[in-house]
Amino acid sequence: MRAVASNVNPTVRRRRLGQELRRLREQKGMTAEEVAERLLVSQSKISRLENGRRSISQRDVRDLCGVYEVEDRRIVESLMQMAKESRQQGWWHAFGDIPYSVYIGLETDAASLRVYEPQVVPGLLQTQAYAEAVVAGALPEASAADIEKRVKVRMRRQERIRDTKNPLRLWAVIDESALRRLVGGKQIMREQLEQLVEFSRLPHVTVQALPFAMGAHPGVNGQYAILEFPDAADSTVVYLEGVTSDLYLEKATDVQKYSVMYEHLRAQALNTEQTREFIEGIAKEYTRD
């Protein structure tokens, strides 16, 4: 079993534990369906345990190790300790039920993030006023308290961008429609675009605008993000946000396809200097209210 660092958050701990359990199953030559039959549980439970989308109890680990005939007690104890730690709470749990908590856990531990955003400014680069307007517009039936909670979480996530010691390496390709969509009013838009330019000057942040004039491009199917992690044991994840559920892709072939698409987007987008000039030009179009 690979050595695992102790300073990881519960979401990443679940992923690593799931990867180890999948490896043990494959070494035993068993399918998820066969394991489920042995333990009298559903196949979907085994799949969720292995992909890290479900919390893993120490009993789950004990039962699975029994099925896989793991004889080394040190391995069993190590996996059970990982299960215990995976059930701890991350900082985001203090805000209550957050629909995209799995993503937040991954983002918190990621070393780099590549995102394509066709509709709005990426959340990590939003001002508070812009974020409030975006959330309120996207969730018209949400209560004021729920909107406030989501915005607070978004602002808390930005600490990775502002962190001078361990910043998140962010590369954002933003469609012109996201820069021109009037969210919250002219003053809010101007302030948002001005902040976007300021963020783009940070050494670990790259922003590229994708003008309408570029025509059709590989991002026409919608927003997505690619998360990479500092530990080689953690596979790269492609995140696709949905209305009622999110999709996480980890297969090497899927990650490769989205990575190639992103390279095409970066090639078609304006370079960083052109992007700043482009955004500043749009900002000037908004006169203060």
Automatic annotation (TrEMBL):
Signal sequence range: none
Domain named HTH cro/C1-type: residues: 21-75
Pfam families linked to this entry: DUF5753, HTH_31
Record's protein name: Helix-turn-helix transcriptional regulator
Taxonomic source organism: Streptomyces macrosporus
